[in-house]
Amino acid sequence: MKTIAFFGIQGRTGKTTLVYHLAWMMAERGLRVMMVDLDPQADLTVWSLGKERVQDLLHQATPPTISSALAPLVQEHGNDAMPIIGERLSERIVLLPGDLGLSQYDNLLWNAWHRHVSQPPDPSAFHRMNAMNRMIQLHAQHYEVDVALVDLAPNLGAINQAALTAMDDVVFPLIPDFNSVLGLRSMGPALKDWRMAWKGMADDFAASLPANEMPRGETRPIGYVLSPISMYGNRPAANDQSTADAIEAAYVEHVTSGRPLADGANCLGQIKNYQSLVEMAREAHKPMFHLRPADGTFGGHQRAAQETHHVFAALAQRIANRAGLRFPDT
């Protein structure tokens, strides 16, 4: 099972759109996919289920959300993650819903991290930092998935810090503007620092945990996606292309430390602005490439919806190649 995080520190990068559409595309190609909504704003959950279903979940005595699953793990003595019933979106897609309750864990995880790195090894602090990994692995095994796609909040907070130590790979959704260059200058070094700190922690407890409960802390950046790109014909607008070049340079310098990829460019894909289709897809609770005239797509909208299938099929293939995933239909 592979875990792939989608991580950025800007809003409106199309991060949730990427996770949602890649999940449906990978499922179409034969993989069993688990979407994990670790953004307390829970946009992925609302898109997948709709507001009414989300309200139904939250009104239950113990909401079947990730914050409930994590609750036992953050106790001082540490229990196992509480299994929750994921939301089945299709035969091959399951969602672990997020909710605003996740935000309560940020300070707790931050304190746990600093207790462990600034004092002698602290088993309870390590247990809490490892909570995200154990929660994801528990549900991945239960649902027998091939890949978990993890939607992270746009920040450098402790929830993301704990989650990223448990990931195999990370993709950076970026906007084609100079703020993305600045963001890479922060995200690249932060990811490296977190990996190094985690390895030091893990060494203290490696002998006390089974291998599958111990993240290696070797999260591998496998590329970035630019969206939305302004297109003229089949080429990006000049301004966007100039910014894309600056982003590539920043990615190489701050994320890969100048190491080239063996199989091509760092940019996994450039996605043009499908804003009106995105809104239709959110309202219909389905991916853009599943929209039909009954959903309001006619003429140019329907052609654009069909185009998104090719766009996300190509992107899913590139990400699968980088992550070492093989589609059963190939």
UniProtKB/TrEMBL annotation:
Ranges that cross the membrane: none
Protein origin, superkingdom: Bacteria
SUPFAM superfamilies documented for this protein: P-loop containing nucleoside triphosphate hydrolases
First and last residue of the signal peptide: none
Native organism taxonomy: Bacteria, Pseudomonadati, Pseudomonadota, Alphaproteobacteria, Rhodospirillales
Name the UniProt record assigns to this protein: AAA domain-containing protein
Domain AAA: 1-189
Species this chain originates from: Skermanella stibiiresistens SB22
Pfam families: AAA_31
